[in-house]
Amino acid sequence: MQVGYCTDRGKNRERNEDAFLIMKKERIFLVADGVGGQNAGELASGAAVRLIGEHVQHFPPEDCADENEIRDYFLDCLERTNDAIFQIGGEAVRREGMATTAVLLYLRDGKAYVVNVGDSRAYLLREGRLHQLTEDHTFVNQMLKEGNITATEAEHHPGRHMITRALGGEERIQPDFFRLSVFEGDLLLLCTDGLYNELSEERMEALVGGETDMQALAELLVREANASGGGDNITAVCIRIDIGEEEV
Fold this sequence. Notes:
Helices cover about 35% and strands about 25% of the residues. It is of the alpha+beta class. The chain has a single domain (about 1-245), classed as PPM-type phosphatase domain (Phosphatase 2c, domain 1), CATH 3.60.40.10. Helix 1 packs antiparallel against helix 2 (about 65-90). The chain is globular, with a radius of gyration of 17 Å.
């Protein structure tokens, strides 16, 4: 398994409210994108990374006996994290509304487990094709699913950045959970919307499929997003499966 990562505040933001977590030994990877006034977004994403990391260290997921226990483990982990961030947000007026997206990847026994809240995404590149694994929890995506707008309209809708689910945003959350088999040569990408909002899926597919070094790829993706506008914070975490399925 080869891992690369890069984050940048972009061209139009005063600070970087993205955060990420790399736990290579535990095979856990996380990207978070904070929202909120003043420095509340930065506080929320940083808290998510810290709290999830501490939970994994104290209660290793390798103790889970099967896939159902893995699912329950990560849903509970995000629920506990949500409770903590929600409580922090209520402690001061300047933190009101603080929240963060989260997309988490866990690799085990030839399977990838993905949990997400918000609009940070997970992608899979397999045999040269890029596939979006997660579904955005946004107002515009909900309208698109309901058939109220077209895909073209969704791309330019003024409310496309409005998320409908986030850690800390409400007392209860509804994360999505996905599992899939992974094979040698697969590449997994976790990223914030600052990346995919600047680059078309075709461009991302070309970049991801054309680079074999994961650190170079993460830096390239961020550089290209900045070159395309850099309107938001940008984070990319890239993981390539270089070993046999049974050893992941």
